[in-house]
Amino acid sequence: MTAAPLLEREAPPALQEAAARIRAHVVDMCAGPEGGHLGGGLSCADILAALYFSVLRVDPARPDDPERDRFLLSKGHAALALYATLAERGFLPVGELAQFGRPGSRLMGHPVRAVPGVELPTGSLGHGLPLGCGFALAARYAGRSSRSFVLLGDGELQEGSVWEAAIAAATLRLDRLVAIVDCNGLQLTGATGDIAPMEPLADRWRSFGWAVREVEGHAPALLADQLAAAPWEPGRPSVLIARTVKGNGVPFLAGRAAGHYVTLSPRNHARAAGALRASEARR
Predict the structure, then answer these.
(1) What is the percent of the chain with per-residue pLDDT over 90, rounded to a whole number?
(2) pLDDT for the residue numbered 12
(3) What is the maximum alpha-carbon separation in the chain?
(4) In whole angstroms, what is the distance from residue 89 CA to residue 68 CA?
(5) Sequence-ordered list of residues with C-beta below 8 angstroms from that of 68, at least 6 positions apart, any chain
(6) What is the C-alpha separation between 224 and 232, in angstroms, rounded?
(7) Comparing 5-14, 51-60, 78-87, 160-169, which segment has the lowest mean pLDDT?
(8) What is the fold of 13-282?
(9) 10 Å Cβ neighbour count for 62?
């Protein structure tokens, strides 16, 4: 039986403001000539804000610090949200975001190592969790306390390599490994539940030997609380299922597969930016 998601509590202003700035950058980048993955970028903005502004042990001045926590954006098509987060956290200039996806820019459609704070190139779905297992195992052998966090999409869970890694992580008792599922219920071609049903998702992960929690995915303070507390059970890897909305904050695209990848016209850019400002004003 699937447990109800944990309910939202008020976010500290700094955390809420960081999430709002990330969303605004995502919308701005999708108004560039190349467009971008707006839907999945907005669905994970609060997750990234919670990680980078409250949970991860990282230092923009020392992005290769061996004691750092590792983060892998397995759903690499949401790179624009990661770039926005890294810029707000100080890993790269905020002004560079305007070059997203343009010829000659290092801010490509999927993350690359040329960007400070990006651990490995990702985006071929299903690779992030196996890589996270490797990072967690390496930290164990090195005697380090660092944790490895992997953000997956729910459509990505259709990849068999995800579940092979899930088995390996549980068998190896990698309790410094934390997976987060951006569970927005949609993928490029429609609803994930229609294409490859995974529910009850929490029970599925438990059956693979993971400690599981569910949370409302647009509550950055609650996300931060849960992620900071991992590992939740000694000897078990942890997975947080974050229930989100694809295109969150932009009403004319929210909850629609059509928002997966868009190039916003000037009119729709203004509409989307205005909707985000109105939403923040109501908080």
Answers:
(1) 93
(2) 62
(3) 54
(4) 15
(5) 56, 57, 58, 59, 62, 146
(6) 14
(7) 5-14
(8) Rossmann fold (3.40.50)
(9) 10
Q: How many residues are given for the chain? A: 283
In degrees, to the nearest 5, what angle opens at C-alpha 197 toward C-alphas 127 and 126?
5
pTM as predicted: 0.95
Per-residue model confidence as pLDDT tens digits over 33-70: 999 999 999 999 999 999 999 999 999 999 999 999 99
Check: CB of residue 46 under 8 Å from CB of residue 217.
yes
Measured between alpha carbons, how far is 24 from 274 in angstroms, rounded to an integer?
A: 10
Instruction: Note the pLDDT tens digit of each residue in 79-133.
Output: 999 999 999 999 999 999 999 999 999 999 999 999 999 999 998 999 999 999 9
Strands 190-191, 148-153: parallel, antiparallel or unpaired by DSSP?
unpaired
CA 255 to chain centre: 17
What is the structure's pLDDT at 280?
84
Half-sphere exposure of residue 266: CA atoms within 13 angstroms, side-chain side: 0
Structure tokens at 88: 């707000």
Q: Tens digits of per-residue pLDDT, 229-261?
A: 999 999 999 999 999 999 999 999 999 999 999
For residue 150, which amino acid is it? V
